[in-house]
């Protein structure tokens, strides 16, 4: 076998590589300079934006865009130095040919990127806000161009793509300074509703942290099976989750103690269970209750309609 042709090709590649070494070295130096410069530009743009605007997310967006733009410029300059035949025009033409394929391959990435930019510009929520998205709820840690990171209340990190956040409903719990809480309290049907309402309001107003304006209120919401349900509503500030749990704990404790001290009944659901064919005459007698089985030999317990009503004792 004749390897002379292959040897000539390898020799030519080696010579071309040796000739290109200065360009490669110089190109790598230029790339390192652009990387360091991109970090400097990012810090500079961030400081300038923060000094002129109070929007932290906008400062992050502009600094990141400046960082990425500087890096892209550095890559193009490095490619031009290492490959003298390469020009930005050739890159644009190549992207034009394969743009459709690239668009389909990176559709989700581009969608999340554009959604992230819109989120950072419109600011429906900011870093530090507490939000709820579907089954996830926590504090916003970071808003990147690809995804938003939240820390849940139980100490876990959730990364949500920006496209989902931008196209779905988000609850921002800390969007306003005040937040209203509520809880349904059940009282007995024999209790005075007006008196119970007054006691509930007194208990709520005595709790530290409950706002006087807007004032608390108590509304009858339901005539339930075992209780009359009164909904207590009150406002707190600030509206963060820790404050919500703390205020609810103190309010419910105060309501329970106030109602119990005044003799207001706090009933729990009750049920009466009757076995099959059980009657008043056999209630409590296990040997006489049929409980769904056929009657055995002997007397069969009478039906309810056959049980005579109890007679009242004559007054002495």
From TrEMBL:
Residues 280-316 are annotated as: Disordered. It comes from the Bacteria. Residues 183-265 form the Mechanosensitive ion channel MscS C-terminal domain. It is a multi-pass membrane protein. It is found in: Cell membrane. The chain crosses the membrane at residues 20-41, 61-83, 89-106. Gene3D superfamilies: 1.10.287.1260, 2.30.30.60, 3.30.70.100. Keywords: Cell membrane, Membrane, Transmembrane, Transmembrane helix. SUPFAM superfamilies: Mechanosensitive channel protein MscS (YggB), C-terminal domain (SSF82689), Mechanosensitive channel protein MscS (YggB), transmembrane region (SSF82861), Sm-like ribonucleoproteins (SSF50182). InterPro entries: LSM_dom_sf, MS_channel_C, MscS_archaea/bacteria_type, MscS_beta-dom_sf, MscS_channel_2nd, MscS_channel_C_sf, MscS_channel_CS, MscS_channel_TM-2. Residues 307-316 have a biased composition (Pro residues). Belongs to the MscS (TC 1.A.23) family. This is Mechanosensitive ion channel family protein. The lineage of its organism: Bacteria, Pseudomonadati, Bacteroidota, Cytophagia, Cytophagales.
